[in-house]
Design brief:
The protein has one helix at residues 9-21, and strands at 40-43, 50-52, 61-63, 68-71, 117-121, 127-128, 132-138, 145-152, 157-164, 173-179, 186-196, 203-214, 231-235, 241-242, 246-253, 260-266, 272-279, 289-296, 303-312, 319-329. The protein is mostly beta strands and 331 residues long. The strands form six sheets. It has a five-stranded mixed β-sheet, with no helix packed on it. A five-stranded mixed β-sheet has the order 14-20-19-16-17, with no helix packed on it. The chain starts with 8 loop residues before the first helix and ends with a strand.
Length: 331
């Protein structure tokens, strides 16, 4: 019997038994296929005729009995075992639910009123020639009078001119004035517009704008975007009576230098009876924020007074903005 590969004795016995069962005189030729060594149990079902592919001699073989056949083929040293695919559980990807990051609560500032003295022309950074046209609108003042002052960066006053609010007494209205000046070349300067107290002559409110003065060339007037009051005092209220030697001051402001403002407390004659500083609590430089401060004062008798909050300039010896409120000061 010719075999391509050695097979086990048990395979031969099974084949011979099959031949006898079928009455065949010629032994079956068995072709062994080289495969990885695998031990296989095959059970032939009873009373079931199973067709076996023809042998090389063309003789069909049928199995008629239930038998368990164990076939062990020769081991191929180069064979690679192939693992059956393992059952893979499909696990949905874990999804982390991220809570919204905590952010600092946005502090909503109290609403500020309109700017008491709003300069509409010229705007900040304008290049101006003589005479300067200064115009704007303002809340009512004593006899509807305002004063316009032109001062250079070193504090030199170049011009001082009164103007009138063009509206009925006690109402807000427009103002306009032309201010002549003389300079050589170009100079940085501030235009200040302010109101004065009829009682002591002190400044009750002041707004300003920085410009460049020129003696020749072309002017460049920058437009203005109206903004709310730069220093709004909410406490004390006008007419409040302050007692105990300390005044509590609150408000919203935009400070021009290091978020710092100055508080002056003045008596009926315009004398300083108290002074302090304020740090504006703003999110960043150049933005408005709240302020709150207690400032001590000293008076010997009850009488009219004024709480002044001002923004001093670092560019010149003067004030960028000033607000005030009239009160009664008591010991």
């Amino acid at each position: 019997m010719n075999l391509r590969r050695p097979v086990s004795l048990l395979v031969l016995l099974v084949a011979l038994a099959a031949c006898r069962t079928n009455g065949a005189d010629t032994p079956a030729v068995i072709t062994a296929t080289r495969a990885p060594a695998v031990e296989t149990s095959a059970t032939v079902a009873p009373a079931t005729s199973t067709s076996v592919p023809p042998s090389p001699t063309g003789t069909a073989t049928t199995a008629s009995a239930t038998e368990t056949v164990v076939v062990v083929t020769d081991i191929d040293p180069t064979a690679t075992a192939t693992s059956a695919p393992s059952a893979t559980a499909t696990v949905p990807p874990a999804t982390a639910t991220v809570a919204p990051s905590s952010t600092a609560a946005t502090v909503e500032l109290p609403e500020r009123p309109d700017e008491v003295i709003l300069i509409l022309e010229p705007g900040p950074g304008s290049r101006v020639l003589s005479p300067i046209r200064v115009r704007g609108e303002a809340d009512p003042t004593f006899e509807q009078t305002l004063v316009v002052r032109l001062v250079t960066a070193d504090g030199t006053e170049l011009a001082l001119e009164p103007t009138t609010i063009q509206s009925d007494i006690g109402t807000r209205g427009p103002f306009e004035v032309e201010i002549p000046f003389t300079v050589s070349g170009e100079q940085n300067a501030f235009i200040q517009v302010f109101a004065e107290s009829p009682r002591d002559g002190g400044i009750t409110h002041l707004s300003s704008v920085g410009v460049t003065l020129a003696d020749s060339g072309s002017p460049n007037i920058v437009p203005v975007t109206p903004e709310p009051e730069r220093i709004a005092i909410f406490e004390p209220a006008p007419g409040d009576v302050i007692r105990g030697g300390t005044v509590h001051i609150e408000g919203v402001a935009l400070a021009s230098f290091e978020q710092t403002l100055v508080v002056d407390i003045m008596d009926v004659d315009g004398n300083y009876v108290g002074r302090g500083t304020i740090t504006v609590d703003a999110p960043d430089l150049g933005q408005p924020g709240t302020f709150s401060v207690d400032v001590p004062y000293e008076v010997t008798s009850e009488g009219p007074g004024r709480i002044v909050v001002r923004d001093p300039s670092q560019a010149f010896n003067g004030t960028v903005h000033l607000s005030s409120v009239g009160v009664t000061l008591a010991p």
